[in-house]
Every structure is written in structure tokens, then in C-alpha cells.
């Protein structure tokens, strides 16, 4: 029944009073409710609070999730995510809008840890942390190994058991950390940072990071972003060995190699060393075969050369016979040539006797003797004339020789350092050095006065 405004029994509320009354009614009747729906219009202002709309196919309601209540949430809310929220229904009085104050949020149809895993996986994959191009090459001969795991867990016992059975010497360093619980991720990341600091002192060439199997909550430290980034930043190759065969963690994706179990990681190290030994053995066998083949080849060549090689005694004997044969042929040819020359000589001698030049020789000898007498007479007279001319020239030359002049008490003065002859006093200044050449020796003097 509607009550007219003029009636004194009618109550009149201000807008603020009405909104306050509605708020009290909602908060007292709906203190905590569970609401499921899809997140839309998700936004995060500078305050860090989450503001969004929770909707289904027919309706929607505004919601807010305050920053202080988000710390226990393992996943990141986003538009399009189906969630179940627990909260209080309240009214924002300044605008008269009712909203859901969320205090707890769970993903619908998937666990919070699984959702957090998928979100972190997608984020790190977009940054390239899973790319094979950034993974470090694994050592071919791992000898110094660091193990980051719990010192009391089954994982370290399994790893050491495999190493103890191995015939290969290994230097193993255990970096003890917690592998489950709230502090585990921080300890694992700190251990990885410590490894980079101490790598020069311990000379590690491989790290094994992991633990035994467990629930998803137990394996959660290996799905934390801080651990993933520490593995990615490591300068030493890392094998991730987390859980059992079916378990898969973010650490497995970031690490340089993933092994399904800690035991498998240890067996990989031993198998790596076995493979290296087999490879070296194969190289040794191949080297032996190559050397044997080379030796056989050279032995065959040596046998072939031995067959072709003639004994030096036989060779010398053949050469001696050849020399004797050639000597005989040479002597015969020489005798024949000598006989032919004798015949020619006898013939020429007979012709020369007929045309003998004895008379011409006697006559020419007389002419030659007279010419020699005349030549001797002419030579003596010419030598006498030349001697007289030479004596005259020598006397004239002696008169012109400056050394003769110096011998009479004269001297030659040079200006230093160019050693040019001084002819005038103005060519030198007081204080300058001069060189005086005498008949015997030289004087170096300093000019005191020039006139």
C-alpha cells in the first residue's frame, strides 16, 4: 500500500541515508558469499588494487580485490578467466553502486598452482628463456659437479649412489638448500648466485639442480620465477632433475638439459664419461689401424725398391767392363787418327822442302839486324831528350810547390770550421778559430784582433 507523502507516518530518507541503509542490509544478510563467473574489464590502477566485473551469460556485478589480500594468490588474474570468488556484498555509497569485496579467489576448473605454472610458462617463453639458442653447451667430460638439493633427501642419496658405482673420478660439491616450503625458492636462487661467485675457486663445469618426486605443492619452488631466472642467468651449464618421470617444472624448461629424475641426471654424467672413453678408445684403435696400414704400405714399397735395387758390386763390375771397352775403342781411334796425321805431316814436309824459305830468312835476318841497330840509336837519343825535358819540368814544379814555400817559413791560414783559405783579415772576426798549416804540422788558433 502506497503511503502519500503528506501523511505524517511516511519516512523520508536522504540519498546518503538510503544508500547506508541498503549497505547495512546487504552486509548483514550476505556477510560471505561464493560467486563464480568470468572476469572482464580487468584493470590495475596505481594503488595496486584489482578492479573488474564478474559476469555470467545473463548478469554482472562489479568487484574489487584489495592489494593487501593478493599476497597469498599464486596466479595473476586477467580478463576472460573463469574464477570462483569468496567475498562480501557491499555498496559504494558515493555512487550508489553495489559491489563484491573479494577476499579469496580460485580459478574455476583448474588449480591455482597449475594456472600460475601456465602463466609463468607463457611469460618466460615470450621472453625467450626457453629458446635453445641461449642454452649453454654441456661439457663433454664433466669432472667437477655442483649439486643443489636437500642434503637429507632421497635425491642426493640416489645421485651419490650412482657416482660411487662409477669407475671415473668425480669431484662433487653439495650446496644444501630446502627444496619445498616458502623459503625454498629463495634458497635455491641464492645457491645459484653463490655458484657464479665461487666458480673460479671450485672450477665447476656442471650443476645438477633438483629433488625427488612429490605433489605439485612440493615441487612449487622449481616453478617460481626467481628460480627460473637464476637458472637462466647461470654461466655454468645446468641439468634440471625435478620429481619423477611424469613431473615437469619451469626449471626443466629453462635449464640447459632436463632429466626426469635425479638418478637419471647422475647416470647421464656417467654415460657421458663412458661415451667419451668409448670415443677415445675408438680414436686409439683407428690410430693403431692407420699406423699399421701405413707401416704395411711402406714395407711393400721397401720390398719393391729392394727388388729394383742392383747390388753396388755388380753395378761397379758392369761399369768397369764398360770402361775397358771404351778405353779399347778410344786407343784404336787414337792410333788411327795419329797414323792419318803422320801421313798428312809427311806430305806437307815434302812440299815444304821443295819450297824452302831459307834464303828469304837469311836476307830478312840481315834487314832485321840493321833495323834493330837503327832503333837502338834512335831510342837512346829520344830518351836523352825526354830526360832533359823531365828535369826542366821537375825544376819548374818544385818552384811552384806550396810545400817548398812553406819550407821557407811561410804558412797557409784556414777559416774554421769550413776550412777555407783566408786571404784578407776582414774574412775573420775576433774570437773565431783558425787553422795554420806549417811546413811540418798544424796550429789551431783563436783570433784576438783583426787589422
Short description:
This protein has 451 residues and is α/β, with parallel strands linked by helices. It is built from ten helices and 14 strands.
Task: Kindly describe this structure.
With 451 residues, the protein is of the alpha/beta class. Among the domains are: 15-109, OB fold (Dihydrolipoamide Acetyltransferase, E2P), CATH 2.40.50; 142-276, Succinyl-CoA synthetase domains (Rossmann fold), CATH 3.40.50.261; 406-446, no CATH class. The protein is 47% helix and 19% strand. The chain is built from 10 helices and 14 strands. Strands 1-2-3-5-4 form a 5-stranded mixed barrel. Strands 7-6-8-9-10 form a 5-stranded parallel β-sheet, with helices on both faces. The chain has a 4-stranded antiparallel β-sheet with strand order 12-11-13-14, with no helix packed on it. It is elongated and about 185 Å long. The mean pLDDT is 82.
Question: How would you spell out the order of helices and strands?
Answer: HEEEEEHEHEHEHEHEHHHHEEEE
What's the architecture of the domain at 142-276 in CATH terms? 3-Layer(aba) Sandwich
Largest sheet: 5 strands, mixed, barrel
Tell me the overall shape: elongated
- Uncertain regions: pLDDT < 50 for 5+ in a row? none
User: Which topology of the domain at 142-276 does CATH recognise?
Assistant: Rossmann fold
Question: What's the N-to-C terminus distance?
Answer: 155 Å
State the helical fraction.
40-55%
Give the strand order, joined by hyphens, for the main sheet.
1-2-3-5-4
Structural class: alpha/beta
Number of separate helices: 10
Strand segment tally = 14
The CATH homologous superfamily of the domain at 142-276 is called Succinyl-CoA synthetase domains
Q: Compute the average pLDDT.
A: 82
Amino acid at each position: 500500500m502506497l503511503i502519500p507523502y503528506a501523511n505524517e507516518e511516511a519516512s523520508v530518507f536522504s540519498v546518503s541515508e538510503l544508500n547506508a541503509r541498503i549497505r547495512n542490509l546487504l552486509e548483514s544478510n550476505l556477510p560471505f558469499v561464493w560467486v563464480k563467473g568470468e572476469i572482464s574489464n580487468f584493470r590495475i590502477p596505481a594503488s595496486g588494487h584489482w578492479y573488474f566485473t564478474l559476469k555470467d551469460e545473463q548478469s554482472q556485478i562489479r568487484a574489487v580485490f584489495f592489494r593487501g589480500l593478493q599476497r597469498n594468490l599464486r596466479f595473476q588474474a586477467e580478463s576472460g578467466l573463469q574464477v570462483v570468488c569468496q567475498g562480501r556484498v557491499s555498496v559504494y555509497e558515493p555512487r550508489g553502486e553495489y559491489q563484491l569485496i573479494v577476499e579469496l579467489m580460485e580459478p574455476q576448473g583448474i588449480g591455482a598452482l597449475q594456472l600460475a605454472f601456465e602463466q609463468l610458462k607463457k611469460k618466460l617463453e615470450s621472453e625467450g628463456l626457453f629458446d635453445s639458442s641461449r642454452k649453454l653447451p654441456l661439457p663433454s667430460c664433466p669432472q667437477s659437479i655442483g649439486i643443489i638439493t636437500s642434503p637429507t633427501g632421497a635425491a642426493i642419496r640416489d645421485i651419490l649412489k650412482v657416482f660411487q658405482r662409477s669407475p671415473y673420478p668425480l669431484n662433487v660439491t653439495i650446496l644444501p638448500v630446502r627444496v619445498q616450503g616458502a623459503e625454498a625458492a629463495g634458497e635455491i636462487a641464492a645457491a645459484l648466485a653463490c655458484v657464479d661467485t665461487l666458480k673460479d675457486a671450485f672450477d665447476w663445469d656442471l650443476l645438477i639442480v633438483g629433488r625427488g618426486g612429490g605433489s605439485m605443492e612440493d615441487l612449487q619452488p622449481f616453478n617460481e620465477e626467481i628460480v627460473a631466472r637464476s637458472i637462466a642467468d647461470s654461466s655454468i651449464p645446468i641439468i634440471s632433475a625435478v620429481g619423477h618421470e611424469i613431473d615437469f617444472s619451469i626449471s626443466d624448461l629453462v635449464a640447459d638439459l632436463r632429466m626426469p629424475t635425479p638418478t637419471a641426471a647422475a647416470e647421464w654424467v656417467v654415460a657421458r664419461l663412458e661415451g667419451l672413453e668409448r670415443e677415445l678408445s675408438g680414436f686409439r684403435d683407428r690410430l693403431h689401424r692407420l699406423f699399421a696400414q701405413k707401416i704395411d704400405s711402406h714395407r711393400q714399397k721397401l720390398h719393391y725398391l729392394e727388388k729394383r735395387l742392383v747390388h753396388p758390386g755388380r753395378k761397379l763390375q758392369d761399369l768397369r767392363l764398360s770402361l775397358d771397352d771404351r778405353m779399347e775403342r778410344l786407343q784404336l781411334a787414337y792410333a788411327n787418327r795419329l797414323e792419318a796425321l803422320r801421313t798428312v805431316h809427311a806430305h806437307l814436309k815434302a812440299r815444304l822442302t821443295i819450297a824452302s824459305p831459307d834464303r828469304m830468312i837469311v836476307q830478312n835476318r840481315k834487314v832485321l839486324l840493321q833495323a834493330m841497330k837503327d832503333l837502338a840509336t834512335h831510342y837512346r837519343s829520344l830518351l836523352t831528350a825526354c830526360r832533359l825535358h823531365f828535369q826542366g819540368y821537375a825544376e819548374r814544379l818544385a818552384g811552384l810547390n806550396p810545400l817548398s814555400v812553406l819550407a821557407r817559413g811561410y804558412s797557409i791560414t784556414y777559416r774554421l770550421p769550413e776550412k777555407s783559405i783566408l786571404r784578407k783579415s776582414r774574412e775573420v772576426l775576433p774570437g773565431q778559430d783558425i787553422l795554420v798549416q806549417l811546413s811540418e804540422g798544424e796550429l789551431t788558433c783563436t783570433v784576438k784582433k783583426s787589422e
